[in-house]
Amino acid sequence: MAYKPKKRRRRRAGPDFTLRALSPSQLPLLGAIFMAVRLDKKNAAPASEQKHIYRGYKQNLPGPLGFIGAGKVGTALAALLHARGADIAAVAGRTPQSSRKMALGAGLSASVAKTRADVLQTASIIFLTVPDDAIEPLCDEIGRESMWRPGVGVVHCSGALPSTVLHAAREAGALIASFHPLQAFANLAAALDNMPGSTFALEGDPALVAQLERLVDALGGSPLHLLAENKTLYHVAAVVASNYMVTLAALASDLLVRAGVTPDANTALPHLLPLMHGTLDNLKTLGLPDALTGPLARGDAGTITRHLHALQECAPATADLYRHIALLTLPMAKAKSHFDEATIDKLREAISDK
Fold first, then answer.
1. CA nearest 181: which of 133, 114, 127?
2. Pairing assessment for the beta strands 199-204 and 175-182 based on DSSP bridges
């Protein structure tokens, strides 16, 4: 039988996935894209909840953007916005070394590391990502150098300060605003992980705030609009919810150490974290006051009395805090459990008894 060669299948037309060598200048972009994909997968929400989740790299985002200040928030913000298609024109730290470190840490080319003057000349929206106490002096210094340009946007990321601390830029014709991610950033890795999907507090000139809303949307976040005069109270709420949760965890860990459960606070903490996560889950699903549990929610005055006697012996300062927090919790306990006044009086007496 004569040999018949097999017919070759014709390849279907489709995207070309051929791997090609990347030039050194393309490596930072590849790193930024990989980081964005990793973070988006980690933070993926159910399809029904993905209204604000990042939709692709070809977004018409405001810019070009510039950053003055090479801290963790500025670096993370530059990285995440760059990975979502924003044009980052220049970044600048205090020194050429810190500028370069910020650029590379954000997945940018080292050529984006510039001087402060370069940022001011090339960016249309400039983020001052420096410590709170340095924001107004820096803005004033740039104003004295006549470096603010009319029409540019000048933004700080402080949670405590209003946009009006940027008055020197406004006097030169710039638009001003504040852009605060309502999130905890213990280090750069935490900032990169936690910022997408967060709430962002916005306040300032409406035209600039409208542009910042588009950046919030690109980050999968939710905008929270504030008035300048309410900024401090907003920040107090953030501190109580975040910073002092760490304090409460430390106090609880110390009590486990005193009880002989573990040798130190850091070995005690893992035993408490599932409880804390469960409470946060209850807050998310049930809200206030229904997430409240424990002796106050049950009307258990006897347990509260025993708690306070034990605390008074080993940690009197914690006993005082317990009393104060318990009194603040009483209205929620009443609202959840519909206690009568006699039960509330009994609980209040147990809390106040020394």
1. 127
2. antiparallel
